[in-house]
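[User]
Protein folding is very new to me. Any chance you could explain this protein sequence and its structure tokens? I have pasted everything here:
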Amino acid sequence: MEGALSGLRSRSAVLKTLVLVTVGLLFVGWLLNTPAGLLGKADAIGYAVCHRIDLRSFHLGDRQLPLCARCTGMHLGALLGLVYQGILGRRKAGLPPRRILVVLGLLAGAFAVDGGNSFLTLIPGAPNLYAPQNWLRLATGTGMGLAIAALLYPAFTQTAWKDWGPQPALDGFKSFLGLAFLALLLDSILLSGNPLLLYPLALLSAAGVLVELTLVYTMVAMMVFRGENLYMRFAEMVLPLAGGFGLGLLQIAFLDFIRYLLTGTWDGFHLG
């Protein structure tokens, strides 16, 4: 029995090492083949998931941010929502109450309406409801990000943790209003144009993309390999998290490669 356990631990250690080395090599390869600097790496993440149209983006001086205004709001909002729920409701995995879900549904609806209206401006002669504005793209994107986080956090918590509880992290309007206030503050900071604040937020918006993909692919890995609800600490979750990060990075690298192959540039799409 002891020999079998020892063999199992040995195989587990070999698998962990193999996964970590593979992910490490993928990460190094991606770093070496993407634009230089922290903002350059953030641009490469945005390049995989966002059109990066210059006119629809905020700028750090003359430099375009890694994601357009809508995607900046969405991924910062999602990251904010995940962190907020993690602090407020540690391992609480219930969905928000119906009244909060209705509000989140309205925010997602506003995202769809504003996105559709903005898209119509790309079609000559197409009617649109109002003139699109970057502050509206940011606001509706942030709202969508909060909605994503409100679903992703309980989904990950229910999948990963052994001791998750059925109570929702966002258990009422008081907790939700606290999150909404922080989201408004975040958008106000972005709209201020302060370069000292825009720089870290630009990096965090790109990090938000990686965090979301990592959580989703980690859940997939846990379900595929029947590793749900086994963990009490993050240290025990190194293997599935590394796998999730690697798969998320692989998706970004693949989309970067295809887009660069088609366009030959790291720039965003150009209008006109």
